[in-house]
Give the backbone structure.
Amino acid sequence: MYDYILNSDDTITAISTPEGIGAISIIRISGKKSIKIINKIFYNKKKNKYNFTNIGIIKNKNNIIDQVIVIIFKKPNSYTGENLVEIFCHGSIYIQKTIIKIIINNGARLAKNGEFTCRAFLNKKITLLQAESVLDIINSENKIYHKIAINNLLYGKLSNYILKIEKKILNILSYIEISLDFTEEDIYINKKKIYNNILYIEKKIKLLVKSFSINSLIKEGFYISIIGPVNSGKSTLMNALIKEEKSIISNIPGTTRDVVEGKIVIKNFNFFLFDTAGIRKSKYIIENIGIKKTFKKIKESNIIFYVFDFLLLKNIKYFKKKIKKYYNLFLKKKVILIANKIDKKKKYIYKIKYIKINKKKIKIIFISAKNKIGLHKIKKFLKKQIPNKNIKENNLINNIRHYEELRNVFKLIKKVKKDFKQKISLELISIDLRESISCLYKLNGKSFDNNYILNNIFSKFCIGK
């Protein structure tokens, strides 16, 4: 737990760059003794300046360890809000470890995961939402995800968005408190204004909650289940798309008995492919376990590729009947029907573009996975699934903790709206409003009962951040 951080008298140190050999490595020191420690081990011909690059050498007694650049930040004008030193040394593992050892020997201790950013939060340099966006910036793999994280860190857009909602709820509470405290006085309470504020809050929270599913795709990527009958070419398609022989290909039905995973990247967005066991009735226990895993993976996926032998389309009625079995699985998913093995009959004319099942139009793409014909059509389909780059980044959340708290707020505000319309006691309404503010406070770390929130967030960071 992060109990020790609340008493932040310790001076901490860590390597902030990735482990291993590199041209340059950055070592941080933060805390009361930072400047004292650097003055003991860093030798410079000129007097050290704050917020300036100082060039000199790190020495251990009479041994020169490295020529380095040192930047000294005096509190509160630093990342952590404490005295902070950054040492830019050569990226030798020996040099990094030796400098860290010298710093520790002079009164610092090794930092824990995320402790530098946690101190920035505790010293009110950033909000908790901004602290979490630091991790999002580090993990960003595409332009939209990066822009959302930058907006939340540098401009505090999500924090400000939440703050406006907090103020609205506090205003409503103040109205209610006045009416409860001065029941015998002739005080006019504008109930219409209160109700309009409740509607405004509900709308704003709903936008954030709904945005989570979109932003999860931006952050984590798309999950695609490749399903279909045995020997339809699912494994061949998987290997062709990821350009790697990952799935076992065989003419023996039921070869794939577990879920095989692969990945393709389109426009910096991740598409995770899952080659699944062929769907059929089987007398083999192991194959049936694989088929159960197939249905589980379908539920977890955003997109389904249903692969089949294109010759089945000769009897459309039979094919539709076969597909209808899986209709309930397709309901909330993006689905394409992949008619495979067109190399069998080259003169066949492919006029069918869609199949209608229970009013749902499902696109058909004709391919030969074996000969890599038509794969560009699949990739074109996937490109269309990438979220629009013009999404309003400040209205997005990408963190399960944020989502859960905001969903709780949304439920409470919906209840408040209903109770207000039904003229339920204002005292009871105020309880739900207070609870909703408590949830919003947790988002920005303003109010929490236990340190589990901090522990959960900052333990995910690398040690030097």
Notes: The chain is about 45% helix and 20% strand. The chain has three domains: 3-126, 133-215+394-444, 221-367.
